[in-house]
Amino acid sequence: MSAKGKAERYIVRTRTLDPAQAAHFSHPLNPNSDLRMHRLSAMVGMERAHLHLGTIPPGKESFIPHAHGCQEEFLFILEGAGTLEVDGDREAVGPGDYIGFPVDGAVHQLYNTGDEDLTYLMGGERSPVEVSKFPTIGKTGVWADGKMRFVDETAGDAFTIEDFFAKDEGGDG
User: Fold this and answer.
1) What is the value of pTM for the model shown?
2) What is the strand order of the sheet 23-25 is part of?
3) Predicted confidence (pLDDT) per residue in 134-161, tens digit
């Protein structure tokens, strides 16, 4: 047995995390996005679910309004004051509030509207592919192979499922 107990590798002591070691996230299409996060699940070797400890400074926001197509997401507010926006409706949130997003198309975003950091847990599913809608910028994002590719919702051809079925000339179809 090592100097550390076996259980120690499964514990993240969040009170001792160095804020300077947090990953700095800023959505490339939203200049007001500013989030520091510690990837808690990665610290213990988890690969199928994710949990991050996030902090948004006053006056900033988490990402860009978005809706998930494949992955459920949740937030749990620990400290600070914020505003949650869902499909254009805004509601104040604070410590103890749990927020869950099933895959139902609800466009959501979190804003720090307080005078102090807004600190929260953010987690959910982690699959190899995710499709997200970004209606405020008119794009759909496809996450695959470790990259987010944005597609302009008005670009290219759009096909219905019926377009993929051959139509037999003179036949029953």
Assistant:
1) 0.85
2) 23-25, 35-39, 49-56, 118-125, 73-79, 98-101
3) 999 999 999 998 888 988 888 877 778 8
